[in-house]
Amino acid sequence: MGSRAFWAVVFGFLVGVFARSFLPIGWNFVGLLALLGVLVLVLAFVERTKAYAYIIIAVALFSCALGIVRMQSAVVTGDPNLTAHLGQSVVIEGIVSQEPDARDTATLISVDASDLIVGNTKISVSAGVLAQMPAHARVAYGDRVQVQGTLELPEPFDTGTDREFDYPQYLASQGIEYQLRYAQIDSIFGNSGEPLKAFAIDTKENFLRGIDLVLPDPEAALAGGITVGDKRSVGPDLTNDFQRDSLVHMIVLSGYNITVVLNAVARCLQGAPRTLQFGGSTFVVVFFMFMAGGASSAVRAGLMALIAVLARATHRVYFGERVLAFVSVVMVVWNPWTLCFDPSFQLSALATLGLILFTPTFTGWFSKVPEHFGAREILASTCATQLMVLPLLLYQNGMLSLVALPANLLALLPVPWAMFFSLIAGVGGMLFGSHVSILGFPAYALLWYIISIAHVLASLPFAAISVPSFGATRMFVTYGILFIWFWYKKSNGRSAGAPAE
């Protein structure tokens, strides 16, 4: 009963959020679902032989109604005072709510706007504003700033692959409703950010400066990405190579990177009291989540890692698929825009689901692959994750990488060591500056190898092909086929008396 009720809550709630994300469902429909749920519960008391099934259906209906209500409560309506000044040059005062996103040509800052300044008058407002600043603008998380620029609404844009990216909805998932183009900072009034988050970001920035003193680009940019989730660009050419190889997950802080760090922490704290082990792992995960700027992929990986650590500390059974479902629902409850409009959350959750569902199958298929250096594990997990994210990637950008498997197999092998030596290089640069450049050589060699693999394989004429007409219907049908295949194998395994894969 408990397991099926859990899944009824999960699927019902997510379906409700999904439906309200695209359809103008009102309160009448919510009332209808609730009424149906009540009627089904009545049937459960009338027909006792089918009470179990009726209760599960009722739970799903109530959960779906709650999902619709949660998404309805998060619908962005904008601020009327800001909307009245669209297309005008305005001055906005507010607090920088996230780490500035420094790029090659601009710095993007997220501002929780509190005041609109018109002449000598301050008008209270409440909205998220994304200000496009000049490159290398000197502003930090938590700064209270006045910024001036042209106020606009975000607009969708063409990705260059005959697909349109819903930029307004994506920004809405970040709590942003307006853009400030060609912005300039008029003044900064001090800092009022959260202390732990500010400390994590300061530590990250100092570490990145240390890496820059010891390593050249693009190796330094890649080192920052795999160790502390740095968002700075590795350059358009290298980014394109990583996309063609399906290696783009390497230049952000992902679940794999956090797992490597947690394993290292566990080895360091081995033999310590259980409380210290759990406390140390928790602090590291939370710290990394802050350094990653609260990116949904890092939050999802971090929360799952914390639950895994707690399960080990309390000797509880850990079911990966249930933990993934629970964490996903928690994140969607917190921010319902995440489900449908945050690509990093979608790819991260699907990749993890692929690992859980299909890695055992591929491990069995690759039983003859040697286990040296984790080759079999990497090959099986790569196949599982690529299989699961491929339909979504084809829908999003229409690019099918034909070298994804060899690229991931060759590039992922040295990642733990690349992270370790990048950490040494960054700390050395922080403490001693460029005088200890020799400390960066092992990291440089490993990072150069990863970049070379990405470049060589992406340069092949058949590295990736474009799939122009892979729409939402094909994506959902493909996922339906994958899940049917999984349940078929699972059912066959059980009927044969073997453990389900």
Q: Would you mind describing this structure in some detail?
A:
The protein has 19 helices and 10 strands. With 501 residues, it is an alpha+beta fold. The chain has 3 domains: 2-73; 80-193, OB fold (Dihydrolipoamide Acetyltransferase, E2P) (Beta Barrel); 201-495, no CATH class.
Note the main attributes of this structure.
501 residues; alpha+beta; OB fold (Dihydrolipoamide Acetyltransferase, E2P); 19 helices
- Strand residue content: 5-15%
Q: How many β-strand stretches?
A: 10
Mean pLDDT: 83
Task: Specify the helix fraction band.
Answer: 55-70%
Question: Secondary-structure element sequence?
Answer: HHHHEEEEEEEHEHHHHHHHHHHEHHHEH
**Largest sheet, order of strands side by side?**
1-3-4-8-5
SSE class: alpha+beta
Total domains, how many? 3
Number of distinct helices: 19
Shape: globular
Multimeric state of these chains? single chain
* Uncertain segments: 495-501
CA radius of gyration is 24 Å
